[in-house]
Design goal:
The protein is α/β, with parallel strands linked by helices. The chain has 13 helices and nine strands. Helix 4 packs antiparallel against helix 6, helix 8 packs antiparallel against helix 10 and helix 11 runs antiparallel to helix 12. It is globular. The relative contact order is 0.08.
């Protein structure tokens, strides 16, 4: 008879506490080892039976998943926000490892996707580009903050342009502030060059991906947005339908209802009152939401989505709700054509 063992790992930067439970829920052993690849591999290889392992999503998750997966029957990287059991009772590394092993044995864990799907190099390129983009925005905000702090109107983007910098620097009239601002401009130029290099590398990577040949026909999705979508989603088959994809993108409308049924002539009937909306879901991938919001904003002025957007507004829908609906439509189209591997047909959208 196959003996199953359930391994809960509470991982920290220095040490990892591990508890192993049997099928009956009894603790087989508890150990604390150093958080290093060779030590963790040796520990897992020394176990017998069918091994199931779990640990929480964190900075070590991708590394551990890639290292442990070939050695065991199952690895689940779980969502720490769903592990309410860990918040009850006394907290310690040993208790957390034991609770993780128990939740794994009971099948009560919510897994976080960690498939590769041949996108490793593209994901790293996308992360580099996104990080450098954030750095550029941070520096740009600091530049404008210096002008605003001295009562200088700096709306627009002219303040960042090289040809106009001397004029803007002279408007400060404060030599120490000017010296600081010169350094910020130099930092912006350096990070901007690195960002452009990262963009070129990311675009080069995504154009060799099979999905790019399909997604490039979806208007408003350029190479950068397609790279970000593939780098985050990895595989469209993670999502059965668009209704699973929308919450991941932060585009799902949350509803709330109560007392949904009533008794009429001795029979249970559903009330006609519609559920109240509570805005969009808050647990989502921010990068994907920005991608589809940007695509929808561009789509309001770009065919064929402009015609779809105009019809929504003409029916009395508020512009902001029409943009949300368009973002959901673009996300649904992206998932559908990616799954089918078929080119997007704009006539279907126009007839919808």
């Amino acid at each position: 008879m196959t003996r199953h063992k359930y391994v809960g790992m509470d991982v920290h930067s220095a040490t990892t506490t591990i508890e192993i439970q049997s099928e009956a829920g009894r603790t087989v052993t508890t150990s604390t080892i150093e958080t290093r690849g060779p030590e963790i591999k040796d520990f897992i290889k020394g176990l017998t039976g069918t091994i199931h392992v779990t640990f929480e999503e964190g900075v070590h998750a991708s590394w551990l998943h890639e290292m442990i997966k070939p050695l065991v029957a199952e690895v689940i990287v779980c969502d720490p926000r769903r592990n309410k059991l860990l918040q009850s009772g006394n907290k310690s590394d040993r208790n957390d490892a034991g609770k993780l092993a128990e939740l794994l044995r009971l099948g009560s864990l919510k897994a976080v996707y960690h498939g590769d799907c041949g996108t490793r190099k593209l994901r790293e390129a996308v992360r580099a580009y996104n990080a450098l983009t954030s750095d550029c925005l941070r520096i740009m905000n600091r530049v404008k903050a210096m002008y605003r702090g001295r009562g200088v109107d700096c709306s627009g983007t002219e303040v960042y342009r090289t040809v106009h910098r001397d004029q803007w620097l002279n408007r400060l009239g404060d030599p120490p502030a000017i010296a600081r601002l010169v350094l910020l401009y130099q930092e912006l130029d350096s990070v901007g060059r690195l960002r452009e290099m990262a963009r070129l590398e990311m675009v080069s990577q995504v154009k060799s991906h099979p999905a790019y040949k399909v997604l490039k026909h979806v208007k408003t999705l350029g190479p950068v947005r397609i790279a970000q979508i593939i780098g985050v989603v990895r595989s469209p088959f993670r999502f059965r339908t668009k209704r699973q994809f929308w919450p991941y993108c932060g585009l799902a409308v949350q509803t709330a209802s109560s007392a949904d049924y009533k008794i009429v002539n001795g029979k249970i009937c559903r009330r006609g009152k519609p559920p109240a909306t509570r805005g969009l879901n808050r647990n989502y991938n921010r990068e994907l939401k920005n991608v589809f919001k940007g695509a929808a904003l561009l789509g309001t002025a770009t065919e064929p989505f402009k015609q779809y957007y105009d019809r929504l507004v003409a029916r009395g829908m508020k512009p902001e709700m029409a943009r949300l609906t368009l973002a959901r439509k673009i996300a649904a189209i992206t998932l559908a054509v990616w799954k089918k591997g078929e080119r997007f047909d704009a006539t279907n959208l126009i007839q919808a």
